[in-house]
Amino acid sequence: MKGLIPCMPTLKPLPPSPLTRSASWRFAMQCPASPQPSTSSPPMAPTATAVCSVTDQPPTLLVCINRSASVYETFIENGLLCVNTLGNGQQDLSNLFGGKRSQQERFDGGQWESGVTGAPILNGAKLALDCKVTQSVSVGTHDILFCQVLDIRDQGESDALVYFARQYHHLPGAAPAA
């Protein structure tokens, strides 16, 4: 994959653990996925069409991105991203990322910091999974990105914002399974 930073081979995957297992069970739809910001462009982030856990050995997600998204090429070239899941009270931010807004407007809606890959992590995300893309498969209008999780930030017991049947729903929090 072109455009990867030279130090990436030194990044090591997380070993299987209760945290990686519980993280893979706690996904809600409508997650903004953010590639690594580069020095020549601002951070960019489409809303992933779908996100789910693939395996916990090594911890891997699949993230589906529409190839017609305005940021698709930059997103693919960077090869790094962070999946930020949202909770109650973050519906407006979800709408910013899911709508036809400029990248600047999207990022102005929250406070961000860089993860271990350099990808933007939303302060206040219920669960943030910082990843590198290890493989991609094209299907129809989308690419399915297989993303190895390199770091997890988990707020622990928390609610989730879910988009289902064209409506937002709030799911109450539960303690992560051991």
UniProtKB/TrEMBL annotation:
Residues of the signal peptide: none
GO biological process, one term: pyrimidine nucleobase catabolic process
Phylogenetic placement of the source organism: Bacteria, Pseudomonadati, Pseudomonadota, Gammaproteobacteria, Pseudomonadales
Protein name: FMN reductase RutF
Keywords, ordered alphabetically: Oxidoreductase
GO molecular function per UniProt: FMN binding; riboflavin reductase (NADPH) activity
Keyword Cell membrane: no
Coiled-coil region list: none
InterPro entries cross-referenced by the UniProt entry: Flavin_Rdtase-like_dom, NADH-dep_flavin_reductase, Split_barrel_FMN-bd
Superkingdom per UniProt: Bacteria
Span of domain Flavin reductase like: 44-170
SUPFAM superfamilies noted in UniProt: FMN-binding split barrel
